[in-house]
Design goal:
The complex is a heterodimer of chains A (278) and B (267). With 278 residues, chain A is mostly helical. Helix content of chain A is 74%, strand content 0%. In chain A, helix 3 runs parallel beside helix 6 and helix 3 crosses helix 9. Chain A starts with 28 loop residues before the first helix and ends in a 7-residue tail after the last helix. In chain A, 33% of the residues are buried. Chain B has 267 residues and is α/β, with parallel strands linked by helices. Chain B has a domain of 167 residues: Rossmann fold. Chain B has seven helices and ten strands. Chain B has a six-stranded mixed β-sheet, sandwiched between helices. A four-stranded antiparallel β-sheet of chain B has the order 2-1-4-5, covered by helices on one side. In chain B, helix 2 packs parallel to helix 4, helix 3 crosses helix 4 and helix 6 packs across helix 7. The termini of chain B are far apart. The chains are: A mainly alpha (278), B alpha/beta (267). Chains A and B meet through helix 7 and helix 8 of A and strand 6, helix 2 and helix 4 of B.
Chain lengths: 278, 267
């Protein structure tokens, strides 16, 4: 870490400021990695001291070894796989249905004022309803099987997705459409060959963001009613006071979320190499 | 006398502003551009220069009057009137080649022919070797060169250029002016060129019009009998400087009026 005075003046020497504390100032990659490692190490250390030192009862905070042990055991007897599979099936189905319906709707809504007028009032109303508030109704309509959880995720992501994609479509530079017209494009060609491709990077970002939300809705749905799934696993572990198993469940949810995030970033670079964000 | 290539006759444009009031952007403007003629239009900002080009392109509809290309009325945008914009309008998902081929591909020109045409125009703007580059990898000047190639590859009857070099730095702009002169001298097109840069207007145009402050009208026509082919050197010739003095005086007057209007509008 070097100390640099950003504003050398001839008069009284100012106190040098470390660049990490200057807004938007870049810091060296190595320094960055060190800080990351340091903060993780401190967290781990605090965890170890609290648990191995006997400061907090294992009922509330299990030790690292206890979590690793039950993690290994749950992976071994298939509990983890069974529940993770159940959750993944629900989340992917619900989210994919929302994407299939929501992306075209959003593009239409962002591009055509008439479509916007038609559906915006409905969407603005529904999106402020917390999905959790709809769960009782969904259970009444659909029952407590996987279909109900798929519906929760669909409703939770669809409306947000439509609005985000509509915003992306509405911000496609108007000149790009104009230039296509002056190159002889028909209205249909402008939509297919300019409008849709122009929205792709924004849509890709939206997919990544809504997948994150889908995890939240999934766990809420599984906490309310389920016989399998990672949310169910956590709730079930609490009933038996198996705090270490709760921590395993949390770690798996976090890990899967991280994997999806990385997957989307990789897909973005891979599928849209032209995008400024790739 | 041969009929004009592009004829704008008695055209007015009114925009609806806030609270239902109407703004007259262009007031009964007439302008003829002959085949293979290069006409420049200068004027203060906000005078409706861009609106005039968008009218000719069919992107804005006249409130009255009509626009004719080769004698027939045009109301919709079409491939016969290509346009180059000031902002960067390349399609970011297409390579340089994909952008230049965009027009021919729309018309279903066969693949091999598209490639041929693209190669020719990419070479014309000096970007051979960049065919596969995406716009995000290009500088501002290179992007505008691709935009020009894209417009020319579509072989329009008229090329409309709306301050195409306005966003470029001074050195790049001079380079682009010479490039455009060179291209035009080799393959003359009918060009209507809008700019706020008087030197640029005089260097490129056969005729230069000065546009008035809003509502836009054409106030003065300056015919330049400067020899062709032209190079940057003519900017120091007596004829050029004389024309520049005339144009500058009028532009100053109109700009003062435009600023006056703006201040009055804010009060």
């Amino acid at each position: 870490m070097t100390l640099v005075d950003p504003h050398p003046t001839g008069r009284a020497p100012r106190r040098a400021v470390w660049p990490g504390f200057r807004p938007q100032e870049p810091i060296p990659r190595r320094t960055y990695v060190r800080i990351v490692a340091g903060s993780s190490a401190v967290l781990l250390l605090v965890w170890c001291v609290l648990t191995y030192g006997g400061i907090v009862a294992s009922l509330f905070l299990p030790s690292p070894t206890a979590v690793i042990r039950s993690g290994a055991q749950m992976a071994g007897d298939g509990t983890l796989l069974l529940n993770a599979e159940a959750s993944l099936a629900v989340i992917i189905t619900g989210w994919a249905l929302a994407v299939i319906a929501g992306v075209p709707t959003g593009i239409l809504m962002g591009s055509f004022k008439a479509v916007e007028a038609l559906i915006e009032p409905v969407i603005d109303f529904v999106r402020y309803l917390p999905v959790s508030a709809l769960i009782p109704l969904l259970i009444l309509y659909i029952g407590i099987g996987p279909a109900e959880k798929v519906a929760v995720i669909f409703i939770g992501t669809f409306f947000q997705l439509v609005l985000l994609v509509a915003d992306v479509a509405a911000h496609v530079p108007h000149e790009q459409l104009d230039v296509a017209y002056t190159l002889g494009a028909s209205r249909g060609q402008v939509v297919r060959r300019v409008l849709v491709p122009a929205t792709l990077p924004g849509v890709m970002d939206t997919l990544r963001i809504t997948m994150g939300w889908a995890w939240t809705y999934l766990v809420v749905a599984e906490l309310v009613s389920a016989d399998r799934g990672l949310g169910f696993l956590i709730l079930d572990s609490m009933r038996g006071l198996f705090t270490d198993r709760i921590f395993v469940g949390l770690a798996v949810i976090g890990g899967l979320g991280l994997c999806f995030d990385l997957l989307f970033k990789w897909l973005h670079r891979r599928l849209l190499p032209w995008s400024p964000k790739a | 006398m041969t009929p004009p290539k592009l004829s704008i006759s008695d055209v007015s444009v009114t925009f609806r502003a806030k609270r239902g009031s109407e703004v007259l952007a262009i007031d009964r403007l007439s302008l003829d551009v002959a085949d293979r003629e290069f006409v420049s239009i200068v004027g203060p900002s906000g005078c409706g220069k861009s609106t005039l080009l968008r009218l000719a392109a069919g992107l804005v509809r006249p409130s009255s009057g009509e626009i004719r290309l080769d004698g027939r009325v045009v109301a919709e945008p079409g491939a016969d009137r290509g346009m180059v914009f000031q902002s960067y309008t390349l399609f970011p998902w297409l390579s340089v080649q994909g952008n230049v081929e965009f027009g021919p591909r729309l018309r279903g020109v066969p693949e091999a022919r598209c490639r041929e045409v693209a190669a020719r125009f990419i070479q014309m703007v000096g970007l051979t070797g960049f065919e596969r580059a995406y716009p995000k990898e290009l500088s501002g000047g290179m992007m505008q060169r691709v935009a020009i190639a894209r417009a020319l590859a579509n072989d329009p009857e008229v090329l409309l250029m709306d301050e195409p070099f306005g966003a470029l730095d001074a050195q790049t702009r001079v380079f682009m002016q010479e490039l455009l002169l060179d291209i035009w001298q080799r393959t003359p097109k009918t060009i209507l060129f809008v700019t706020h840069d008087i030197d640029e207007a005089l260097l490129l145009g056969d005729r230069v019009y000065v546009m008035t402050a809003r509502p836009g009208r054409l106030r003065e026509e300056v015919v330049l009998d400067l020899p062709r082919p032209r190079t940057l050197e003519i900017e120091s010739s007596e004829a050029f400087l004389e024309a520049k003095r005339r144009v500058l005086a009028i532009v100053r007057e109109e700009a003062a009026q435009a600023i006056g209007q703006e201040v009055a509008g804010l009060r």
